[in-house]
Write a structure and sequence with these properties.
The chain is mainly beta. The chain is 0% helix and 53% strand. The strands form 2 sheets. Strands 2, 4, 5, 6, 9, 10 and 11 form a 7-stranded mixed beta sheet that branches. The protein is globular. The termini are far apart.
């Protein structure tokens, strides 16, 4: 059974940082392209960062230069370092196995003063 469990969300002030983690199991993590997506009320779901098997990354323009996606294949874990957070980054964040579109339980990120 594929499981993706995101964690690390919380309440942070504008300009602050958070590091999200996603523990993956039930599939060959090291051979899977992975991404982070977020669901924002009224805006639907958007893919904000992706990392390929070879480590190449891509970002949504609105997070480029502020967010960093990375992976630890030895620990089957995906990360998202989020810096210079803005109120518009508020949402539920999910990690996703790109090929299957599988998303696990998300983690809430709230950016507010």
């Amino acid at each position: 059974e594929v499981q993706l469990q995101a964690s690390g969300g919380g309440l942070v002030q504008p300009g602050g940082s958070l590091r999200l983690s996603c523990a993956a199991s039930g599939f060959a993590f090291s051979t899977a392209a992975m991404s982070w997506v977020r669901q924002v009320p009224g805006k639907g779901v958007e893919r904000i960062a992706v990392i390929n098997v070879d480590g190449r990354t891509g970002y949504l323009d609105s997070v480029k230069g502020r967010f960093i996606i990375s992976r630890d294949n030895a620990k089957n874990t995906l990360f998202l370092q989020m810096n210079s957070l803005k109120p518009e980054d508020t949402g539920v964040y999910y990690c996703e196995r790109v090929s299957e579109g599988t998303r696990g339980q998300g983690t809430q990120v709230t950016v507010s003063s």
